[in-house]
Task: structure prediction
Amino acid sequence: MIAHVQVEGLALMRGERTLLDGFALTLAAGEAVALAGANGTGKTSLLRAIAGLLPPTAGTIAFSDASGGEIPPEDAIARDAHLLGHQDGLKLSHTAGEEALFQARWTGGDAASARAACERLGLGALRGLEVRKLSAGQRRRLALARLLASPRRLWLLDEPLAPLDQGQRTGFGAVMAEHLAAGGLILAAAHDPLPVPARTVEIGG
Amino acid sequence: MIPALLNPERFMAFSRWAAPMLGLIALVLALGGLGLDFAAPPDRHQGYSVHIMFIHVPAAIMSEVAYVCMGVAAFLSLVFRQVLATAAARAAAPLGAGLALLALVTGSLWGRPTWGTYWVWDPRLTSELVLFLFYAGVMALELAIDDEARAARAAAILALVGLIDLPIVHFSVTWWNSLHQGSSLTTPGALPGVYLTPLLMMVLAYLAGFGALWLVRIRAEVWRRRAGALALRGAAA
Amino acid sequence: MSAFALILRREFGLSFAGGGGPALAIGFFLAMAALLPLVVGAEPGRLAAVAPGFAWLVLALASLLSLERMFERDYEDGSLDLLALGPAPLEVIALAKGLAQWLSTTAPLAVFAPLVAIGLGAAPSLAPISIAAGLVGGVSFAFLGGVGAALSLGSRRGGILTALIVLPLFTPPVIFGAGAIDACAAHLDWTTPLLLLAAYSLAALALCPFAMAAAARNALS
Result:
């Protein structure tokens, strides 16, 4: 179980452009960090690098558990991290319930937890509908459902709440607070302030 | 020598004298080979068209060697992520494709007097055609992806897949040809000794020539990247 | 349910969504079959001689058609990110995608193709060998096609680029499959080419997932 993320001396490139150089970040259990910065400065790339999708050109990303023991990155990512990107990763032809079920099962949850997550996020009545019939906000909440349905400690979120209204954001803020209280870690890139207390880290500039 | 060559600075110093020297060797060998070729008596079966053999056969051989070189460079670029390896793989592709095309055209011209047509599905020519298509695929893939690093990696993966598939293609085409008793480009039996020496010289000439051109293209690639990096730094300042 | 079974079931289900699985490829097949007599002339002898080989070739081409849904859809809607962070490595996911492609497209075509060949005048006795070659060779087409599909992710030319990459790789299975069908027609040994085809397909099944995964990782980076 991830309890600590340490990023040191990280350098990231996108094509020929250097996005980050000598970047450092620490994230501990119960902490939320908000990444701030203009578009294109590397927030998404940083999240993807920690998720193991974008190999850095220099530096290290280390995961450790509560007793300080190191967790190999592949294991950490495959079992204990959620990545929620700009896109929802939903198949339009499937129903909301089917998608929630697959995403939950794929990331370590089950049918019961998927159903409970949908209920919690106000999607209970929509589970039988095809995803193509849902609004942007509903699809986003459906994508967020897997965070609840599968107990993974590290949440890497890229503009998670963009299409949600204020009431829904506050609601999800409660979810995030519970996650942090249980020892979870949140690293989020967001233009608007997060609905939980978070340390801000500037990217770029 | 290979690890030393993987360092860009040392490579540039090495290739500065190596490339022209290889070019000179290539020129000398080619002149010698062709000279011996024209000095030799015309072949009993093929007459004067046998001269094309001295252009065609080395081209065909080198097009395969070039693919192996490209494949090895691709492997090194994927595993070690060395900039030079990536440059080498990218530089080799058009050279190899050109050699394959030369082999195809000269093979067709060579066949014309012998069979009366410009093309037959001889196993070697067919394999050469497929090899050319492999090259075309690698180059097309690299051109079609905008992100340079990703494009190079994708092309490298494809080059390796092609490298593994190439022997199988040869085998399958030869097997198919043996079933259908198609005609073969080279007459059976050993090549007369008087042809062997100039042919060998031409093969070595092509090898040296490829080496020279390859080094030159890699140098050009290194310069291009340096210029690009400078431009970006200048824009950011 | 194991991770592999989960992803295989999903991929298979998705292959039939939005267009009914092999329906499109079968439609392409019929269209090509309709064109052949127009090109070759309708005299039965000529048509019958060409039909089995033609059906085999169109099978290879038709399996190129549905390649874009192997990876491109997931890449576009963000599902590939989710899959990459799951319990199964990308190689296993690639294996599942290749199998789903075979089950939903090339295998049905393999059964359908001989019918078309017979319609064009081929001898019905060739149907069993055509089906066998189609089923076995279909594995090669699906997995090699998958490599092409994964490599052209994020490229500007998509379908036709994939075809250019993949068709030269198809050369051995096309030769072996056609060889088996031809040998059967001439009452010669068809077991050798069929075994060669099987060997190639097994190699493709074993090795292509690694290339597909490497290509997918490259596209995600």
Remarks:
- Chain A has six helices and nine strands.
- Chain A has one domain: 4-202.
- Helices of chain A lie at 43-50, 73-80, 96-107, 111-120, 136-149, 166-181.
- Residues 4-202 of chain A form a domain with the Rossmann fold fold (CATH 3.40.50.300).
